[in-house]
Write a structure and sequence with these properties.
The protein is an alpha+beta fold. It has one domain. It is 44% helix and 19% strand. The strands form two sheets. It has a four-stranded antiparallel sheet with strand order 3-4-5-6. A two-stranded antiparallel sheet has the order 1-2. A hairpin with a 5-residue loop joins β1 and β2. The longest helix has 23 residues. Keywords: Signal. This is Transglutaminase-like superfamily protein.
Length: 202
């Protein structure tokens, strides 16, 4: 009886998540609101130069997808293990993006003097690129415990904080997580932390 109740509870948790189509619609709506282009199939319009002022078509190729599939397959045991696997996939992806886009290696934290420079990414670029990857992974059926949500922001000058954006996922319990590589160099693991905590950071 107890086992049956646990199974029912788990099923209800999964059903309470937004469907992939709905989550994709919300995330794709963010791209439209920013004037950016969301992913189509495995085709991504990668943003760089700050504020997506520069754009480059990138394909999430078979080799990258196969590596992501292997990493995420090994992390299917739980939502926590899937987030750890996602960190590895995103780090691989940011290195891939940097190599594909070229130019000076992206400097973490978007220094003001790098604005407009080819290959440099601010938080909007990072958010668009990370959300694009997450949507591709979701469309490929590689996310077992999470769905992609609309990106979130924090800070608005009046609270003493510079505005900052991040990609967002939601787990089976309804808990939201920021997936934020902005403070990391290409190839390094992104910050993946509860969205509530991320919102409080400066």
């Amino acid at each position: 009886m107890k086992a049956t109740l646990l199974l029912i509870s788990a099923a209800l948790s999964i059903l309470s998540l937004p469907s992939p189509a709905f989550a994709s619609q919300a995330a794709m709506g963010w791209f439209k609101s920013q004037g950016y282009v969301g992913p189509e199939g495995t085709r991504i319009i990668a943003c760089h130069g700050y504020g997506c002022s520069r754009r480059q078509v990138i394909t999430v190729d078979g080799a990258l997808l196969n590596r992501a599939r292997a990493i995420l397959s090994a992390g299917r045991a739980s939502a926590e293990s899937e987030r750890k696997a996602l960190g590895q996939v995103v780090s691989t992806y940011t290195a891939y993006l940097a190599a594909s886009i070229g130019g000076k290696r992206d400097v973490p934290g978007s220094p003001a003097d790098m604005s407009g420079v080819h290959g440099q990414m601010d938080c909007l670029d990072e958010t668009a690129n990370t959300t694009s990857l997450l949507l591709v992974l979701q469309a490929q059926g590689l996310l077992a415990h999470h769905k992609v949500e609309r990106p979130e922001s924090r800070g608005f000058f009046l609270d003493g904080r510079y505005p900052h954006f991040s990609a967002v996922i939601i787990d089976e319990s309804g808990r939201e997580w920021a997936v934020d590589p902005w403070r990391r160099a290409p190839g390094q693991r992104p910050e993946i932390l509860p969205l509530v905590q991320w919102r409080q950071d400066s």
